[in-house]
Amino acid sequence: MARAGGITNAVNVGIAVQADWENREFISHISLNVRRLFDFLVQFEATTKSKLASLNEKLDVLERKLELLEVQVGTASANPSLFARDA
Amino acid sequence: MAVPVEEAIAALSTFSLEDEQAEIQGPGIWVSTDSGATDSPVEYSDVSAYRLSLSEDTKALNQLNALIQEGKEMGSVLYTYRSCVKALPQLPDSMKQSQADLYLETYQVLDLEMSRLREIQRWQASAAAKLAADMQRFSRPERRINGPTVTHLWSMLKLLDTLVQLDHLKNAKASIPNDFSWYKRTFTQVSVQWHDTDSMREELDDLQIFLSTRWAILLNLHVEMFRVNNVEDILQVLIVFAVESLELDFALLFPERHILLRVLPILVVLATSSEKDSESLYKRVKINRLINIFKNDPVIPAFPDLHLSPAAIMKELSIYFQKFSTQTRLLSLPSPHELPSREAQDYQRHYLIINHIGSIRAEHDDFAIRFSSSMNQLLLLKSTDSADIDWCKEVKGNIYDMVVEGFQLLSRWTARIWEQCAWKFSRPCKDIVPSESQEASASFSDYEKVVRYNYSAEERKALVELVSYIKSIGSMMQCSDTLVADALWETIHAEVQDFVQNTLATMLRTTFRKKKDLSRILSDMRTLSADWMANTSKSESGSLQQGGEESKANFFYPRPVAPTAAQVHCLQFLIYELVSGGNLRKPGGLFGNSGSEIPVNDLKQLETFFYKLSFFLHILDYSVTVATLTDLGFLWFREFYLESSRVIQFPIECSLPWMLVDYVLESHNAGILESVLMPFDIYNDSAQQALVSLKQRFLYDEIEAEVDHCFDIFVSKLCDSIFTYYKSWAASELLDTSFLFALDNGEKYSVEPMRFTALLKMTRVKLLGRMIDLRSLIAERMNKVFRDNIEFLFDRFESQDLCAIVELENLLDILKHAHGLLSRDLSIDSFSLMLNEMQENISLVSYCSRLASQIWSEMQNDFLPNFILCNTTQRFIRSSKVPLVPIQKPSVPYAKPNFYCGTQDLNAAHQSFARLHSGFFGMPHIFSIVRLLGSRSLPWLIRALLDHISNKIATLEPMITGLQEALPKSIGLLPFDGGVTGCMRLVKEQLNWGTKSQLKAEVLRGIKEIGSVLYWLGLLDIVLRETDTTHFMQTAPWLGLLPGADGQILHSQDGGESPIVNLFKSATSVIVSNPGCPNPTSFHTLSKQAEAADLLYKANMNTGSVLEYALAFTSAALDKYCSKWSAVPKTGFIDITTSKDFYRIYSGLQIWYLEDSVRVPPSSHEVLGDSVAWGGCTIIYLLGQQLHFELLDFSYQVLNVAEVEIASITQTHKSPHFFQGWDGLLEVMKKARRLNNHVFSMLKARCPLEDKTACAIKQSGAPLHRIKFENTVSAFETLPQKEA
């Protein structure tokens, strides 16, 4: 065989190739959309994380404020006499 | 389709996934990490379906690919090999008897390592044999089998490359023979007891030869190849293929390019070393082409810290290959270290990124814009329902072009970094300028020479910039992966179909009509890839595309499906077959062939399509390609240098990624600041490499440890520069702008703007698979650093005297302003909260803040005893004499400039302002105290001062009694006849307190302190009045207060509401009446709050005087001693001679100290100042003895006598200089009288004795106006207790 090539059963191969194109269209459609779904999930996670982070930040600030208020209330309730006079 | 997948996915995009965070990091997440289409995922098993009789070729191809995979693993074992010998323990003398056990243990440990080397030895032998066999099989001239295909050629090249790399690595790693000799020694020790060790020994000798021979793998390969003499053809084909690919440089991404560059010199050596004459090679490839390629790239990266040089390799190999040593032209190429300096300069220019960064920047900007705009087009297209087909095709084609361009850009840029690294490794820094003097003596490791000191600041900057370009373009492309995927598939599909259906059809009709065998190849190409039905399937499904032009033969509908790897493989094979005619010996190149039967035009088309095909694979492999092209992990690895430097690990200062981070932080360059996270992606990449490709846990651990360490330092350094920046920004804003404008060098006080906003928004920093909330870390640290700073300012104040209060206020103002500026971008604790916390002022029942108690203790211990008053300037100054009470103070704490005002210049500016106020204590200081303490702690301080007065009076009482007792029974009026001299003598005789001078001084000091406190409160009164007035002016219009005719305050509407309440009420009613009002209750709340504000502000209207209050308090405190200090005369008349009242005592003290102040050089006035008069006169006044004092005071009497005397003398003698010796005294006495009169008149105004009224001060600090109260100390209990 001096030359390469020469598909032995060209017609059958042609039909198979055609069918292959169509099957693969379906497969790539599905796989692409699965990947899109995955992408969405990744992005969703990222967004959620940053929203949670900002929530956490607000909670942190509130927590510290609350702590302060608690201390203040604590000092006040430990010395009721000081406040009774005004009442 | 049954499930509306498309719609379901499209629905997802309606979710809002907006994010605050800027994209300032590289892509961190891969959707898939396994390779896709570049290598066939099914190992080309589908090739057989195309019936091209390629099964042999496919089998060989897969075998080679498996070998490449194994070889890479061997390479990583070898690259990451670390010497074990260094870790082996030595036995102490006491345990020599167990030496044999140690040998056995050592042997077992080393045996494990050596077995790996043995495996490598075995593997390379089998790989070489298989490669040689493969080459021989596929280069038989008779060609019983199809092949080799192009993919197969690539696999050969890659395997060859793997072998070369392995060999190079084996040569470079010195620890391996070292370990081996230990192993051998222990083996001889251990094996004494074993039988039958001959085979093992033989094996050992074999391994020793393998390890100690340079280029052993290559030599072995050479032997294997030339066992049968027909591989020259295929070697030549490989050379031609490599040279043409390199010269065209279109479809090559940098990893492939580097493979070709590494393999080419070896191929040349192998091809010319055969028995046949080597000239046939140069018939196919001109030697100049080879030399050009070698010259263009004198250094080629091989491993992260190991490079190859073609010239050096060829020189070294010429020793082993006799034939090759005749190739003088190739051997005369200079190796990189022997380059003449001018050529080296040229290469330097080529290799250093710094020389290209300008054009790279332009490329980046241009590409980023065009890529996003074509992405926008694509999104627009997707949202359009029925799009025009042509437009559709254009947009998608555009995306395809952009992706190709993007890959090429990324490949070029990353290759630049690789090549710069290799160049730097080949040229270590020769003249190190040690930046730190302490390192001057230390010797530098090789790694420091090639990395740490080999990158100048500019080069680091360029590198950071390029890294961030690569990473940002990479992440941009990575993000759009799934968006562009179908567009890319469609375009590739269209390209392929266009070629096979149109171009090939034309060719078949014209050129190849007569050539049967050639046209068969063409029609095979059509058969295996044409998609004839794409048209019908689409129009039948009746989807988006409308309008059929079936009549047009060359039109086909797009189908978003790409060809498989096998299809591309077969197509490439067929094209190659077509042009080469299946003959390896065919002279000339692949395509640039004139002797071919194919016309140039068609050849050109075939060539273009051929190279396009190989690029398709990269595009189909989108995410993997992006990951490969943006992988910069190699910048971290330094296994080779670790070994040669004989250290376990280098310090992070030598680590290139950290050097880059550090550079960004230190340079304070606003332009690259936002890229500061990019170098951390290098760590991400290298960790990925360590785990996935090198598969070494210990490397990952080392990287992780370094990253942890670096990130900590990074955060702390970043926070430091953020803090410094905001601080200096605040400090420069607080400088007087008009003054700065007038200044010549005003610019140095302005701060260059920096943008930390993007960094401050980073809530998800991706680091080794972890997510780090950088923002919260920064906020945490900022909270801490602000507190530390406040603490430091108080510490500093505590180590200085009271005059530093102005500086303290200034510094706190700067801090507060900085806090305000920073809180715009970052949520941190409110400043007042932090200040209260650091002042220990949180408790609701405590009024003494840290600052107030410090001010008080400072006044008590330093200010009152050591400062003297100057009545004229209204200032207290430190007495010039040695302090009477020595004070212990902590030394001034040290802090970085950013704890003051930020930068040195700004510190100097603010300090020169503060210095103006550091020498005295006066109004500005009181202002500062009022502002700093506020209405909360000020009453506490006032109370403490008043208590101090009453305590002083109590301590004075026994002393004064002592003085009273020492007075003579009676003291008459001073007689006029003795003149001044006589008077003074008489006074001295009568006031014989001589023995009690200590007591006298003590009493005077006490009176001085009382006076100082009272004067201080007087100043405070003035300041409070001013603040209150400002406050009143601001609130009065809102509260509806009007000035009345008689100076009284009138309320505008009698019984009505104040303007503020009215305003909010009417506004609320209007808004609420509007039916569209969304939230009426909030407006009601608003109006209620206005009422509350009205009440609060009205309650604070009545202001009183602190001074009057203090005088009343003093008067009350004195009441207790009234009987002793102010006896009611028994006769009912004024008691002149026998009185021992306070005024008499003070009179005596006054004349004594006045006389003293004239006589003794360090005059007592400098010790006591004017406040003695304030103290004495106030007590006298409050005891109701003012008239007595003015009448009977000794010095006043002396002055009277002197006046008469002057009058009489001027009448008779007309000599002005009569009072020799008494001049000074009289002058001082006059001054004292003036001062006393001033004090008395002030007292009369502020505290009329007629009605003992005063004001009280409420807990809130607001004085109650003119309240009648019983004059006892207990009446003043409204002020907070000092102990509270």
TrEMBL record, chain A:
Name the record gives this protein: Protein BRICK 1
Segments forming a coiled coil: 45-79
GO molecular function, one term: protein-containing complex binding
Gene3D superfamilies associated with the record: 1.20.5.110
Keyword field contains Coiled coil: yes
Lineage: superkingdom: Eukaryota
Keyword Manganese in annotation: no
GO CC aspect terms: cytoskeleton; plasma membrane; SCAR complex
